[in-house]
TrEMBL record:
PANTHER family: PROLYL ENDOPEPTIDASE (PTHR11757:SF12), PROTEASE FAMILY S9A OLIGOPEPTIDASE (PTHR11757). It comes from Glycine soja (Wild soybean). InterPro entries: AB_hydrolase_fold, Pept_S9A_N, Serine_Peptidase_S9A. Residues 32-53 are annotated as: Disordered. Residues 46-251 form the Peptidase S9A N-terminal domain. This is Protease 2. The keyword Protease applies. Signal peptide: none annotated. Pfam families: Peptidase_S9_N. GO terms for cellular component: chloroplast.
Amino acid sequence: MALFRALAHSKNSTLSLTRSCHTVITFTPSSVCRRRSNSPAPPQSPPSPKKVPFTVSVHGKTWQDPYHWMSNTDDPNLLDHLNRENGYADAFMADTVKLRSVLSSEMKARLPPSVSTPPERWGPWLYYQYIPEGKEYPVLCRSLETETGWLKNAVLRYGMTRSKREEILLDWNELAEKYGYVNVGSCRVSPDNNYLAYTLDISGGERFTLQIKDLRSGLIDPQLEVDGAVSLAWAQDASYLFYTLSDENQRP
């Protein structure tokens, strides 16, 4: 059965290739290793979170966890503390803004405009993912193997040139634009190549929702959505989709 894993979990994620790079970068110590004398001094120490007494007892063992209150992500005090930590980090790194921009531009310039995963054959189709030029998330595509050309020397594209009749099955970029955040957990194509089942997290809480897309019509049936789905597996005849659900601890 075809198996696809999401290659982008956040907006800063990138596809990685197995290759070696040897780059020599020279810095001017006065501008990089030392803080500029005219830069504003950062706060003397990072913000310290408050301590709230809390006793934990498990398996006959008892201990204090004064930071247990931080497990409540809805606590406004937690958000306030995170904002203060971010402010401290911004102030501490204020004199490296230009340098970070230069380094980021240099590293991006060394990457090809688009990179692809190796194609995986499933029936008459070849399935693969790639990040389109100018985008930050990948797309899951397929092309008929008979319509796909091969180039032995195209290393960065793993020897494949995309077909003009390429089908885009799932676009992470569209999902991110729609929801503001996207994390695709698992993707499973049905054995008859007619359906795509995938899990989607749009909150950042690692709580995934199962969606099933009809690849012939492009429609997603909202009645088939399942909250809390984890692993997916199609029956051999594609008449059933098996899945596991997570419990309150987000375990299957």
